[in-house]
Amino acid sequence: MNFLQTYGSQLRGLMLQGKPTLAEYFWTTVITFLHNIEICVLGSPDGWFFKYNTRVHVDQVLHAFALNCPNLTALEIQWDPETLRFSDKSRKFIDRLRLKCWRLKSLTLCDGKYYELVKGNFERAERPRVVRTSNSYTTSIVSLLCRYKDLQFN
Question: How many domains is the chain built from?
């Protein structure tokens, strides 16, 4: 936490997935320090292996990203559908993320009701290719490397 408080504004990419103890409170606190973040991966895809004692309220996490991270281009939330909790007002938080983070090109979620809700929201806004499923797509911070274009080839 101290590292992210000190250097968070300098980070452009952050992948802190697979840590079951890093849940909603941690992320809503830390996101306020990540003003220049472009790519972020959070959550734990292994919910089947480690059962959470609490559920993660994803609306608050999306709200924090919308308020603090205008440069966000890719976000992957890896918590499984049994761990994610969302409210009836989720559409409002999704709209806010879509409008405030207008550079967002990829939002990767696990299959389930929340994925369908978010996908429908982006499709109504005529941005159908933004929302992806974690079964077919994974987010990486490799594109932030200064020599990334040298790595690409035909």
Answer: 1
